[in-house]
Amino acid sequence: MYTYQRRYAGPVQAVILDLAGTCVDFGSLAPIQAFQALFAAEGVAITQAEARAPMGKEKREHIEALLAMPRIAEAWLSHKGTVAFKDKVDQMYRDFVQFQLAAIRENNCVIPGLNELVSYCDEENIDIGVNTGYSREMIAELMPALAEQGFKPLSVVCATDVPAGRPFPWMALKNAKDLAASCVQACVKVDDTAVGIEEGLNAGMWTVAVAVSGNQVGLSYEDWMALSDAEQDVKRIVAHQTLSQSGAHYVIDSIAELPEVLEEIGFRLAGAEQP
User: Fold this and answer.
1) How far apart are CA 119 and CA 14, in angstroms?
2) Using CA atoms, how far apart are residues 26 and 111, in angstroms rounded to an integer?
3) What pLDDT score was predicted for residue 1?
4) 232 CB-near residues (< 8 Å, 6+ apart)
5) 19 and 132 in contact (C-beta within 8 Å)?
6) Which of 57, 87, 145, 232 has the most CB atoms within 10 Å of its CB?
7) What's the CA gap between 37 and 41, in Å, rounded?
8) What is the pTM of this model?
9) Residue 77: Cβ within 10 Å count
10) φ, ψ of residue 239 in degrees (nearest 5)
């Protein structure tokens, strides 16, 4: 018995970008600086690697994930004499917002290649949205700073705008709704974390992971460029291998390579391939 299968065969309609580490803040430094400052203020130092481990989550969930890590939990209990209950997490989140605002102000430069991506999307009639683990309060100053650099996405969704953040699909789906995409197969989610790629996959979208500009390498643009070619290759290979395990359809260094990927996805869609 023949069963009809509907397959979208139109163009890419929407690109949904993560913020820190994907289109702004090369190395995704602002969240790390804020989390380390938060825990240092509590007398429990955390490493950069620990701070990065839950990256991509809503920031309150990120704090809870850090507190649940065995080494941090042990250090916290030793220093505080008790675990962090809800009231303490509430207070830490309030404190974190202030640390995060300061860090965002210091790390608000767009990642090289973003302006070229915007031009490409304008030419191809592809709408751009962004979503983020930041709250509305945290991006209140960031979005105007990005606009001054020529980046004005048509849809901005925060984790606090939806019932649950990553890896749930709700942010990406709200972006798609805001951008009036006709179907999720016409949307591409771009992120620098595995949980952000999972968000896109759960939403039924094409997914592209950025390996060098974001959380996996974790270096500023200046520090990255200061490495030798051999040193860059080592870090690049590790980052690509890690993110390839997330299930991403593509893994690239940064959004500077995204127009080429969007071109290929467009060809695949024309052949009725689905994400």
Assistant:
1) 14
2) 6
3) 58
4) 224
5) yes
6) 57
7) 6
8) 0.89
9) 13
10) -65, -40
Q: Supply the pLDDT for residue 4.
A: 63
Domains of the chain plus CATH, in order, are 14-28+109-270 (3.40.50.1000), 30-106 (1.10.150.240)
pLDDT of residue 162: 94
Q: Count Cα atoms within 13 angstroms, Cβ side, for 232.
A: 13
pLDDT tens per residue across span 10-30: 999 999 999 999 999 999 999
27-55: per-residue pLDDT in tens? 999 999 999 999 999 999 999 999 999 98
Mean pLDDT lowest among 38-42, 141-145, 149-153, 225-229? 141-145
Structure tokens at 104: 């965002």
C-alpha 128/C-alpha 188 separation (Å) is 10
What beta strand segments (E) does 179-244 contain? 187-191, 206-210
- CA 254/CA 212 separation, integer angstroms: 6
Selected residue with higher pLDDT from 139 and 3: 139
For the chain, what is the mean pLDDT?
95
* Amino acid letter for position 35: F
Kindly provide the b/e burial profile for residues 254-265, where b requires at least 16 CB atoms within 10 angstroms of the residue's own CB. Answer: bbbbbbebbeeb
Q: Which residues are the active-site residues?
A: 18, 59
Q: Return the closest-CA partner of residue 189 out of 202, 178, 180.
A: 202
Q: Which residue, among 129, 132, 62, has the nearest Cα to 104 in the 3D structure?
A: 132
- Is omega for the bond preceding 167 within 30 degrees of 0, making it cis? yes
The beta-strand segments (E) located in the chain are 14-18, 127-132, 155-158, 187-191, 206-210, 250-252
